[in-house]
From TrEMBL:
The lineage of its organism: Bacteria, Pseudomonadati, Bacteroidota, Cytophagia, Cytophagales. Gene3D superfamilies: 3.30.70.3270. This is 4Fe-4S dicluster domain-containing protein. Signal peptide: none annotated. Keywords: 4Fe-4S, Iron, Iron-sulfur, Metal-binding, Repeat.
Amino acid sequence: MKRKGANNTYFGNITEAFDTLITGLKTTWKHIPLARKKRSLENVDSEKYFEKQEGLFTVQYPRFEMPVPEKGRYQLHNEIEDCIVCDKCAKVCPVDCIDIEPVKATEEIGKTSDGTPKRIHAAKFDIDMAKCCFCGLCTTVCPTECLTMSQDYDYSTFDITDHNFPFSKMTEKEISDAKADLEKAMEEKAAMAREKAESRATSESSEKSADSTKPKAAKPKFIPRPMKKKKEGNNDDNKKEDK
């Protein structure tokens, strides 16, 4: 039984192959004269972007790049000088691509560009773009708007670990010094709390000892009052009434 559609004979298949080849070459020959001119670069926001459907479309990347929209979801960038290490971006990230190690400072360490005080060191602030799903939630919750999406879209590498971008500028010595200052401040705070507790305990014990040395006040003695005697005249009147 002969199948419908495809030509299943030997020479029929050869004929069909030539027919499809000639049909495809006709389309190619039609565009060859138009491919002598290079297509001008137009931004996707331009109204004429989809009008130019003819010309050379190949771009010699990376020497030439196609313009991309300014408000796109590309590589994340953190302006660490404006970061207050609030950890909101790491908490809202659905894929856990942001890794932060905060170290509390013992005093104010500076201010951001909008005047927000900085009280936490960013010992570690890494963003793994290999995990990023480009949802943009981290840029939305950032209170100082230091976390943004840049226009860098090509960060391809041979090693996937190179997609982990560190933004912290602290050295190992600065991190260790900040941790040591924090531990010292915590120890001093604990010592002050112990001193307050001890002074409170001593004051309470001294008050108790002072109360024990005071002579106890004598309890008032209860003296029952004598009952009043009823008058005899009243009793006689009552007896007459009974009779």
